[in-house]
């Protein structure tokens, strides 16, 4: 591990807070060391303090942006996202193991973006508990951060980082060392750690059609739209027909990439490579029964039932747009951070599909084990995305009280749901509850430290509260993280106008228009009065710029 002075770590932490709003406490300095170990050799610098100064100098912003995703490597944990791991433990991994044994081959799993190894070791523990031998499992764990990969190979974790592991698992799979726990050699045999850049054009180490499962969780939130689509192409080729892809809880391919099927496994949403290239539809799907493995001779195809959704009406943009500016359309409902291009698809008449439950074609399933989508009394259980969509519908109808109630209830059931947190913050902001809005956006940043949306909406809340200094700071941090975000430049210009910085406002409006040559993504969360499309942003920015130019003559 790179030897970094406390002074350099403090300087770097202060810089990250100043530029990106990323708060790193001394507990998180481990991730700073890992990030520096990767980026300093690339920059050709051996002294950490010199490197930090480079970041502060003119021209250092691009290097700082390269460093940021590596800094967040510390935000991982064992058995992260309980719903996903419950689906893995109870259904997916047992079936993959059984299928691989029938075909006399190994189960092939890729933990893509493994950070310091918690995810990979969690999967290895489950496989060992299922009775799989190390020779039956090819568990490949990779990360861009080579220092993190080396840390993962060592398999040493502090007491705090191993707190999510049950006492039984700690006793079986770890042994105590100074200041923490170390993975037993027998468990380490299940995993091979290597460096891998997911943005690379090819994966030379992956044989096409060889993988049963890819775990790429909380990684693609840092990628732009073209990179995501190219990565999904490579993942699709790497998976076997019927192979599964797990993304992070707040990540989605909705209207971003449509070659995977989206299915539900015991409450967790999973993407699957189609068995025959096209999803087969069942009219009455039967949800998977707990631990119901099919006979050796029975195939296990899965079915997806599509259903349509309706675009929401366009509300007023009166709070933020110039007088008499053309009315922009509002963003279409989304279920998580990366549902790109939704609005354009809906305006073109496309009907997005919703996932169905994972189903098995097995003879006469025991009706006592079949799960239903209803609760006593006939009330239906809706997935989080549908529940949020219902709340957003009330939001667009200005029924803010009911919308807040629905989103607060959703967050009780789904703590940390990023779209819900952002939407709740916006609802609080719209109803004047600014302190509560700030808290919601702070929680979103705990969930995703580089969340641009939390900065944008936090800035809007500050703008509505009349705190122009805070608004300018939040928009500046958002633009540092995503310089091509035209909406961020437009909102910054609004603040500059209000502070009589007309030259700055003109520059920002021009920047907003100039950035439209790059693909613009809809934001996570929902706010009814923000322009969402390139055309809408271009119209309001050009209108405001023309008004400023006219004032100057």
From TrEMBL:
PROSITE patterns: CHER, TPR
SMART domains: MeTrc, TPR
Pfam families: CheR, TPR_16
Annotated region (Disordered), positions in chain: 304-334
Keywords, alphabetical: Methyltransferase, S-adenosyl-L-methionine, TPR repeat, Transferase
InterPro entries: Bact_Chemotaxis_MeTrfase, CheR_C, CheR_MeTrfase, CheR_N_sf, SAM-dependent_MTases_sf, TPR-like_helical_dom_sf, TPR_rpt
Domain CheR-type methyltransferase: from-to ranges: 1-276
Presence of keyword Transferase: yes
Catalysed reactions listed for this entry: L-glutamyl-[protein] + S-adenosyl-L-methionine = [protein]-L-glutamate 5-O-methyl ester + S-adenosyl-L-homocysteine
TPR repeat coordinates: 418-451
Enzyme Commission no: 2.1.1.80
Superkingdom, natural source: Bacteria
The name this protein goes by in its record: protein-glutamate O-methyltransferase
């Amino acid at each position: 591990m790179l030897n970094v002075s406390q002074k350099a770590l403090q300087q770097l932490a202060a810089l990250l807070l100043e530029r990106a709003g990323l708060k790193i406490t001394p507990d998180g300095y481990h991730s700073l060391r890992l990030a520096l170990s990767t980026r300093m050799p690339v920059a050709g610098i051996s002294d950490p303090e010199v490197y930090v100064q480079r970041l502060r100098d003119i021209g250092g912003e691009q290097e700082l942006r390269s460093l940021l995703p590596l800094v967040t490597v510390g935000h991982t944990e064992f058995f992260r996202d309980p719903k996903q791991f419950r689906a893995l433990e109870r259904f997916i991994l047992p079936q993959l193991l059984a299928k691989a044994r029938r075909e006399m081959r190994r189960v092939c799993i890729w933990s893509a973006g493994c950070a310091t190894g918690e995810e990979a070791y969690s999967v290895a523990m489950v496989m060992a508990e299922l009775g799989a031998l190390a020779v039956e499992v090819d568990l490949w764990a990779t990360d861009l951060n080579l220092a993190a990969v080396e840390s993962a190979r060592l398999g040493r974790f502090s007491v705090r980082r191993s707190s999510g592991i049950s006492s039984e698992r700690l006793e079986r799979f770890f042994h105590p060392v100074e200041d923490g726990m170390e993975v037993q050699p027998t468990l380490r045999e299940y995993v091979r750690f290597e460096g891998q850049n997911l943005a690379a054009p090819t994966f030379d180490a992956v044989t096409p059609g060889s993988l049963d499962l890819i775990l790429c969780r909380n990684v693609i939130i840092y990628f732009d739209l073209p990179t995501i689509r190219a990565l999904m192409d490579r993942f699709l080729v790497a998976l076997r027909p019927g192979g599964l892809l797990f993304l992070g809880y707040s990540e989605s391919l909705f209207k971003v990439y449509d070659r995977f099927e989206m299915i539900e496994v015991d409450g967790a949403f999973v993407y699957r490579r189609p068995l025959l290239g096209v999803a087969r539809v069942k009219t009455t799907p039967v949800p998977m029964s707990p631990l119901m493995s099919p006979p050796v001779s029975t195939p296990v195809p899965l079915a997806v039932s599509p259903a349509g959704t309706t675009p929401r009406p366009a509300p007023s943009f009166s709070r933020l747009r110039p007088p008499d500016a053309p009315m922009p359309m509002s963003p279409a409902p989304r279920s998580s951070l990366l549902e790109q291009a939704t609005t354009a698809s809906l305006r073109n008449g496309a009907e997005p599909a919703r996932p169905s439950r994972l189903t098995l074609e097995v003879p006469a399933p025991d009706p006592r084990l079949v799960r239903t989508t209803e609760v006593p009394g006939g009330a239906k259980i809706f997935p989080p995305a549908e529940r949020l969509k219902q709340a957003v519908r009330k939001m667009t109808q200005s029924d803010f009280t009911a919308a807040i109630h629905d989103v607060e209830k959703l967050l009780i059931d789904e703590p940390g749901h990023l779209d819900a947190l952002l939407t709740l913050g916006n609802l609080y902001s719209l109803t004047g509850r600014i302190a509560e809005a700030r808290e919601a956006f702070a929680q979103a940043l705990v969930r995703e430290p580089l969340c641009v949306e939390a900065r944008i909406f936090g800035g809007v809340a500050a703008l509505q509260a009349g705190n122009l200094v805070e608004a300018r700071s939040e928009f500046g941090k958002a633009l540092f993280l995503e310089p091509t975000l035209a909406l961020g430049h437009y909102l910054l210009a609004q603040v500059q106008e209000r502070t009589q910085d007309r030259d700055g406002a003109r520059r920002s409006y021009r920047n907003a228009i100039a950035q439209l040559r790059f693909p613009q993504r809809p934001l996570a969360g929902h706010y009814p009065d923000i322009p969402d499309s390139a055309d809408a942003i271009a119209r309001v920015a050009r209108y405001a710029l023309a008004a400023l130019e006219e004032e100057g003559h």
